[in-house]
Amino acid sequence: MYKSAFRKFLPLFDRVLVERFTAETVTKGGIMLPEKSQGKVLQATVVAVGPGSVNPKGNLQPVSVTVGEKVLLPEYGGTKVSLDDKDYFLFRDGDILGKYVE
């Protein structure tokens, strides 16, 4: 039913809670990058998922990602959620652009 990496927050419906990867602060050549020069990180790890949404026929449409998967996020959007002094982002399942397969 609900899959969560922790028990303090469970997303509802088709929401997905993700933790963004940290931005690179040093280039491969060893040059330190200021915050303004760092690009926005679009990759994240799924931390928790909701049960899914209900389609027009009344059936439950499950979320397409699972906890632990690495996903590609849109550049803008998402709702910032702070839990245990860490920042997470809440997206709808349909807003996630794709997932990485290994």
TrEMBL record:
The protein's organism comes out as Labrus bergylta (ballan wrasse)
The keyword Chaperone appears for this protein: yes
- Cross-referenced PROSITE patterns, in alphabetical order? CHAPERONINS_CPN10
Q: Which SUPFAM superfamilies match?
A: GroES-like
Q: What does this protein do?
A: Co-chaperonin implicated in mitochondrial protein import and macromolecular assembly. Together with Hsp60, facilitates the correct folding of imported proteins. May also prevent misfolding and promote the refolding and proper assembly of unfolded polypeptides generated under stress conditions in the mitochondrial matrix. The functional units of these chaperonins consist of heptameric rings of the large subunit Hsp60, which function as a back-to-back double ring.
**Entry keywords, A to Z:** Chaperone
Q: Which domain of life is it from?
A: Eukaryota
What's the name of the protein? 10 kDa heat shock protein, mitochondrial
